[in-house]
Write a structure and sequence with these properties.
Length: 219
């Protein structure tokens, strides 16, 4: 099963992808995470992308398509993937169709997390992640039980994304409206789009996604 999680920055794509990947034997492919890892390793591709990411702009299609095509070809992706953050433009969506076809695979569903834009800046501004195990938290909505200590692994080191601030978030939302939103009708027209209320509680969003995936498994 291959699915796309779609929605603006802060909609909860990464959180939900992590919750469902183990359950369904799928691999989360987050292009944002892949770019951040490339920056940390000091790879030329990461350095090329960094300035665009820091200003909230999209990285060029050619770079992103090459990145995801190489990753999808790796053996761990053979049972299926959850694409998180890709595609983000119509040319990326078209290239993804070609990729799936050439691999003899298919896209099964596009799950669109619908959210209220004004809530997103608040959601994103307080995000932080455990540097050791990757568990996500939020200053107000999901703090650690003990201040400064990861609930899951006990680490005291956390990271915050450079682009998770109100100013960059405005540019990221503009990029979503202008360049990513046009892929919604692209997938709606081929009957693959499923809309889920992304403003609901995390567990309820997860349940709504599970309902879609279980229906797909039965069909
Ligand atoms: P994300 O972690 O998905 O919020 O992505 C962080 C940043 O990485 C975005 O604001 C873009 O600059 C870049 N990025 C990630 N995925 C893509 C993509 N599919 N196309 C273009 N830029 C991307």
């Amino acid at each position: 099963m291959n699915i796309i999680l779609l929605g603006p920055p802060g909609a909860g794509k990464g959180t939900q992808a992590k919750r469902i990947e183990a359950q369904y034997g799928l691999i989360q492919l987050s292009t944002g995470d892949m770019l951040r890892a490339a920056i940390q390793r000091g790879e030329p591709m990461g350095l090329e992308a960094k300035a665009m990411m820091d200003s909230g702009k999209l990285v060029p299609d050619s770079l992103m398509i090459g990145l995801i095509a190489a990753r999808m070809d790796e053996p761990d992706c053979k049972n299926g993937v959850i694409l998180d953050g890709f595609p983000r433009t119509v040319p990326q969506a078209e290239a993804l169709d070609v990729m799936f076809e050439s691999m003899g695979k298919q896209l099964d569903a596009v799950i669109m997390l619908e959210v209220d834009e004004p809530a997103l800046i608040d959601r994103v501004s307080g995000r932080f992640t455990c540097a050791k195990c990757g568990t996500g938290y939020h200053d107000r909505f999901c703090p650690t039980q003990q201040p400064g200590v990861c609930d899951k692994c006990g680490s005291k080191e956390f990271t915050r994304r450079a682009d998770d601030n109100a100013e960059t978030m405005k540019a990221r939302l503009a990029a979503y409206r202008q360049q990513t939103a046009p892929i919604i009708p692209y997938y709606d027209d081929c009957g693959l789009l499923h809309r889920v209320d992304g403003m609901a509680a995390m567990a309820d969003v997860e349940a709504a996604i599970a309902t879609v995936l279980q229906r797909l498994r039965r069909d």
